């Protein structure tokens, strides 16, 4: 009869590795950090805090933006992060400030392995284009989304 100890040992080792490969994702819902979905209140600080916690985590992370309209002034999501498994999921709308006077509205920099999907980016360009059509002196407008130095 074979010794069952090696079989049990390798089975246990396999289960441990299998469990680690299905690591649980930590969700950072921007509402839990004070974001307001009213399209009027600047939620940049709440988004930045949710991002900072996801970036600092060593576990797979999800920054979650639920349905609603979230006003965001200029915001930079910067790495490097402690993990390469961050998902930025947008089920709502990100709304730019109405003044159209920012160089870069949303920027991701040095964040390897990020997945960004879903949602709507509302740069509020209609007022800017109406101003430009009128021939008045208008702001230059903002670059909506900038992605730098990422793999």
Automatic annotation (TrEMBL):
Enzyme class: hydrolase
Chief localization: secreted
InterPro entries, per the entry: Glyco_hydro_28, Pectin_lyas_fold, Pectin_lyase_fold/virulence
Molecular function per GO: polygalacturonase activity
E.C. numbers: 3.2.1.15
GO biological process, any: cell wall organization
Keywords per UniProt: Cell wall, Cell wall biogenesis/degradation, Glycosidase, Hydrolase, Secreted, Signal
Signal peptide start-end: 1-23
Protein localization: Secreted, Cell wall
Entry's family note: Belongs to the glycosyl hydrolase 28 family.
The protein, known as: Polygalacturonase
Annotated organism of origin: Handroanthus impetiginosus
């Amino acid at each position: 009869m074979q010794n069952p100890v090696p079989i049990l040992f390798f089975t246990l080792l396999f289960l441990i590795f299998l469990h680690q490969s299905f690591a649980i994702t930590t969700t950072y819902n921007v509402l839990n950090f004070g974001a307001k979905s009213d399209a009027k209140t600047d939620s940049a600080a709440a988004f930045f805090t949710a991002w900072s916690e996801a970036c600092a985590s060593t576990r797979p992370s999800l920054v979650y933006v639920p349905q609603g309209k979230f006003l965001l002034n200029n915001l930079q999501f910067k790495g490097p992060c402690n993990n390469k498994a961050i998902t930025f999921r947008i089920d709502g709308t990100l709304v730019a400030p109405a003044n159209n006077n920012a160089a870069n509205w949303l920027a991701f920099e040095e964040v390897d392995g990020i997945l960004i999907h879903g949602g709507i980016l509302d740069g509020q360009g209609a007022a800017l284009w109406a101003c430009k059509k009128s021939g008045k002196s208008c702001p230059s407008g903002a670059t909506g989304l900038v992605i730098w130095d990422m793999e």
